[in-house]
Every structure is written in C-alpha cells, then in structure tokens.
Amino acid sequence: MKIQSLRGMPDLFPEDLQKWHTFESKLLEIFHCFGTYEIRTPLLESTELFSRSAGNSSDIVNKELYSFFDRNDDSISLRPEGSASVIRAIIQKKQEQEKHKLWYQGPMFRYERPQKGRFRQFHQVGVEYLGFEEGISEYELISMVLQINKLIGISNYTIKINHLGDANAKESFCESLVSFLNPHINELHEKDQARLESNPLRVLDSKEKSTQELLEAGPKFQDFISNESKNFLQNLVDAYSNHCDIQIDQSLVRGLDYYTGIVFEAVSQELGAQDAFIGGGRYDNLSNQLGGKDMHAIGFAIGVERIVELLSAEIIKPALKVGFIISGEQIDKKTYKIADDLRSANNSIILDTFLSNGSLKSQLRRANKNNCSYAIIIGEDELKNNQVIWKDLSQGGEQELLSFKEVIEKYTNLQEK
Fold it and tell me: For the domain 319-412, what is the CATH code?
C-alpha cells in the first residue's frame, strides 16, 4: 500500500512555490523599509500557552489543537498561531519593557475540516508591534497592509475595522447580548447556542443567516465603547478612505479571545467563503495573561495560502535561464570550471546544466522545454580550442563562437529581453 500524505497537509511543488517565493521576497522589502525584524519560535510549545492565550472557550483550544504527551507526560502542542509564541519568547527573555517591531513566518497547525484556502497545516507571516500604545502603531500597521497589497498587485479588497473597547466594555456588551438572545435561543444554530454560553462575543462572527438576521435588532458594540474609541475608529476610516475601501464592521470580533481595542481584516470576494487573507488587532492584555508584565501589543497575520491566490501575474517574473550543454562523450574538468566561473560571474541567472548524456538535438529540445533563453554548447572541438557556442534560442537559433573569456563577459552582462 502506498503511503499518502495526511489529510489537510498538502505537498508544495516547485511550480506551486514560484508564487510563494515572489511573495516572500516582496515582503522582505516592506519589512526592511518599516524597520521590522525577524523572530523565529519553535513549532512545539506547552499546551498551556495556547489554552491561556486563546481562551478555554475558543474552538482552537477545544477542537483544533494538535496536542499530545511527550515522554515526560507533559502536554505539548503544535502551534495554531504565532502571536502567543512571540509574546512567550519576549517574556522568557524579560524584554516586556522594551519596544519591538518583529515579524515571523512558518507553518501553523489546526485540526479542522480542510477546504479551499484552509488546511490543517497552513502557513502564516505575522507582524507584531510590542510596547506601542494605541495610536500611531495602528496607522503604521494599516499602512503596511496597504503597502503589501500594492507591492504584490492586489487591488480588489476591503479593509474591515472595529473597536472592541476595554474589558469592561466587552463584559457589558456580552451581558446585553446574552439577555437579548436568550429568548430566541431555540432559533439559534446549535453552534451559536454553545458560543452564547461559552463566549457570547463569538456569536457576532456567526456564518448562520438566521443568527445574523436576529443580530440586526440586537445591541450594537459601539453603544458600549467610549467616545474616544469611536472617534479613533472613525479617524482611521477618514485617514485611509482615499487610499482603499475601508469600512467599520461592528460584527468583526476576530477568532481569538485576547483581542482588545482595534481589530481589522483585509478581505477579497475573489477568495469565496473564506475571504479574509490578513487579520489582526490589539491585544494589550496577552503578556499579563501569560505571566509577564503589562505590555502594549498589536499585530496581524497573513494567510499565505490565501494571499498567493490573489497575486497579480504581472509581478511573477521568471528568472532568466541559460542551458549548459555538453555535446560529446569526452568530458573534461575544464567544462565544469566554466560552469563555476559563469555562476560566480552572475548568480541571478539560472544555469541549467544537463547532467545526462544525449544528442545535441535532444538537449536543445530540453533547453527549449525548460524555457531557456540561451544555450551554451561545448563540444569536443570547442573544448580543444578553448571556445564555446553561444546560441540564442529566442531569435531563430542565431549562434556565435566565443572564447572562454568572451562568454564569461557576455554572461556577466546578460539581461532579460
């Protein structure tokens, strides 16, 4: 019996990863210009880290964690998201009183039903601004989101924002929401009934049409937050309304319990039901929840599988490729020295060396199939005379005879047409 990959954990082949590499290289440019630096945390953490951060009532903890006991009978889990691990690392290094602009990337794991844009092993790139209170940091992160979308060619999207107030505002709103929905409990979907009991705020995020119709007449979150918070939310909309489609969405709560203050998502109708590809918000209480000192914090995460679906084809430029063909059975060490010299002269070009014997015709056919723009051909006669044949595969096969020195110079200055 052939061994298959685990459900919801797909393989990624070179043709899939071309988009990923383009996206990652563009992100590095943005993080660099914002002065944001990389942090790497382990895939495995103590299960308690996620139960304390996400909340015991969350679906992540109750249903989606990949947890098991190690040889010391300690419960450990594959990370389902990145923020908790970053905060844990900062606390462990006793750096809560410092300011940090950090980014991370890597696989995350959640046991849920696989569907388009959502897998059991998925990948995120995240940004965390730590030590910065509410204000300018919100503007900077939304500006970063706009820069990311612009640089990778995404134009058809909406940014949704909401303000969750402080702990007292959340508690008062949840009490009001429960009082409003309890008389209609039998009209709610079974999942929303469970949410109403364990985490009422999550009912706002329900996908059930009947629940959303009930909520239209229910209490509004903005009636429970301060005027200062309302003004801040509106100021964000006013600041970016000329740059993107940005809207206040009072049903936006995000999926983790630790969010307070501003929350936001970037969504695209091109993605279908799972339309959010960037999401985040403020979580000033998380450090304290995890045993650290008080620390302001705000961040967002990008779903890589989703965002690469939106990449503009125009920004994905294949690298220039040159075929390196040895014609003849006599192989000399000079041949490989030439290949080494070419790569040293210009490492932005792919030098596609054909490592199996074959006729010149078959190797040229392979060079064309591999989308090589040029071919460097070395036969026995050329090798004896310290020369190579340079063949232009895109211009009717025009070719010229070059010395070793000349081909290095030509390769060094080679650019895509």
Answer: 3.40.50.800
